[in-house]
Every structure is written in structure tokens, then in C-alpha cells.
Task: structure prediction
Amino acid sequence: MCTRSIKLIAFDLDGTLLDSAPDLAVAVDLAMQAMHRPRVTEAQVRTWLGNGADNLVARALSQNMVVDASLSEESKTQARAHFDHYYAECGHTKSALYPKVKETLQALHDDGYQLAIVTNKPSQFVPEILSQQGLEGLFVDVLGGDTLPKIKPDPMPLNHLLDKHQLATTEMIMIGDSKNDILAAKNAGVISVALPYGYNHGEPIQLANPDHLLDDLSYLPKLLTLL
Result:
């Protein structure tokens, strides 16, 4: 069993454990076609990810990272409904775990660490994705973008885990690929660990000043022995 200082490890999902951009891009593109809007590419979608589905479709409608202030709430709501439909329909067949993720998560679980998912992705899609990737049963909590009133970079999801599991801030870390993950960790007062290969709006994750930067998830167990 785990007897070290870190008790719970919170993981982002998209861009951290899972490369989901190909399926997300298909769903967003089909949503834009349904709205008779310009189509979008996977490359564009990769730069728009990280702030939840509402922001993703609003950026697609705007064809820009900065959302067009003139967009109507009706158009954003319609685009989100189309996105949800197409994303559910896609079956997530193009998504794949990053290298060494599954074996590292299993090893951490077996070593007694509590693992949690803290994602801005709509929660309705998360259980199926975890099941498809063989990760069901590894996590004590799965928080989606609509589980609580606020999402990352707000600290609410991490504070929820700290309170629920009665942990000190020194007993939990947050692993992510974007500045939203790093800011959420900083705002909650927990250690932040970044991975460099995800969806950080096209910016190097080093600019977010994470406490630790790992080349891939397989380096995490060694880091944990030092914390």
C-alpha cells in the first residue's frame, strides 16, 4: 500500500491520458456543417480544446480562439446540441491513449494511490471512453465539466476532492497538459505536474510554470517517490 505523502492523483483526460482530438474534430466539423458554417480542421480543433465543450463550439463558430462577441446564445446552444449528437455517434473510435498511460495508471493503482479524473469534457461521454480504453475501475472519482458549477482553471473541482477525501493540499497532485490544469492546481494550492504533448492552445506548457514537467506519464512513479 501507498505510505508516501501523496495520497490522491488527479488527472486531466483529453491531451493528458487520451488523444481525443481526432474524434472531437469530426464532431465539431459535422456540427458546423449542420449549422451551415465554415468547416473546421483537426489542427484548428487541437488549438481550441481545454475549456469545455461550450467554448469549443463557440470557437468553431467564430473560427478563432477568441469567441465572436456577436454570436447569439441560440446559435451557440444549437451548435452544442449538434456537437453532443455527433460526438456521441462517433463511438470515439479515433481516440487513443498516449504511450505508457495504461500500464502507469495500473501500477499507481496497484501501489495504493487513489486516482481521479478531473476533466472539462462533458461528463456524459467519460464513462464510455474510460471503459473502451480499459481504464474503468481505476478511479475513485470522475469529475466532468458539468459535475460542479465551475470548471478548471477554477479550483472548485480540486477543492471538492480535497474536501471529500479529507486531504491536505500536500497530499494531492494534479497532472495535466494545459495551463487550465496548472492554474487549477495553483489556485487549489496543490502540486502541478505537466505533460508537454497535449492541447495547450498551441503554447509551450512551460509558460504556465508547472511545478514539474515530465516527458511522459511513465516518469510519474519516480517523481512521486521524491515528493
